Amino acid sequence: MATALHPVNDVVIDAQVFKRANGYKPWLYKGQFDGCRFLKKAYIPLVIFIFKLIKDYTNLNHPCPYVEAVIFKFTNAVCENHNKTWITVHKCRLRAISRNKTTFNLNLTLNYPVDHPVNVKGQLLQKANGYKPWLFSANIDACRFMKRAYNPVAILVFKLFKEYSNFNHSCPYVGPVIIQDFYLRVDKIPNAMPTGDYLLVLAFSFSKKPQITTKVYFAFVEDLL
């Protein structure tokens, strides 16, 4: 295990494959490639093959820069449905991909159109003799946000999962709401967090009533040494 103490960019890797024949002799491949470019979009067939061999056992799972986090992953997910007539929850669970990578999957159906206003109360809590409020607590109108993003913290949270969801238009919403294979990436947050266990609570209300609450637990570890 190694820890990057400062953000890492511009990674040049010299790679060579040897075959044993009266000592080890160069065989098949010798070359140099850009590690950051490769993690953004894989190229060079042999390097792709080697990376696939180790991918499930490593935390090399996002483009550069790489910083000091050793673990940044989901640990639990709970969806509390307060109105089963309006909302049907088909799936709300985590899937372990590797030791340090867990994906969040949500699949629900809005049985009737949902329109302005949709109040979302978001709160981030940190574990310390139970989960205590930490960093932010905010209320936003989701319909207004989808029309034109506002609130810096809400924008940050939305950018984390936007590419894994079908949240791509303004209200009204009806039918499937999906988040698929969403995993946490260090490069999506502006600053490292203190090591700890966290809980992100998002409580959705519309028609003046609580409708659904999602509770997503995650861990951030800066250094295991």
Strand content: over 45%
What is the general shape? elongated
User: So what's the CATH class of the largest domain?
Assistant: Mainly Beta
The CA-CA distance between the termini, in Å, is: 9 Å
- How many strands appear in the DSSP assignment? 10
| Estimated structural class | mainly beta
User: How many domain regions?
Assistant: 2
Record the strand order, biggest sheet.
3-10-9-6-7
Point out poorly predicted stretches.
Answer: none
Radius of gyration equals 21 Å
CATH topology of the largest domain: Ganglioside M2 Activator Protein, Chain: A
CATH H-level homologous superfamily name of the largest domain: Ganglioside GM2 activator
The run of helices and strands is EEHHEEEEEHHEEE
What summary fits the major beta sheet? 5 strands, antiparallel
CATH-defined architecture of the largest domain: Distorted Sandwich
Helix content: 10-25%
Mean pLDDT score, rounded?
Answer: 87
The tally of helices reads 4
Question: Could you characterize the architecture of this molecule?
Answer:
- With 225 residues, the protein is mainly beta.
- The chain has helices spanning 35-40, 45-54, 142-147, 152-161; strands at 12-20, 24-34, 71-81, 87-98, 101-114, 119-127, 131-141, 173-182, 196-206, 209-221.
- The radius of gyration is 21 Å and the shape is elongated.
- The relative contact order is 0.19.
Quick summary:
With 225 residues, the chain is mostly beta strands. The chain has two domains: 1-67, no CATH class; 71-221, Ganglioside GM2 activator (Ganglioside M2 Activator Protein, Chain: A, Distorted Sandwich).
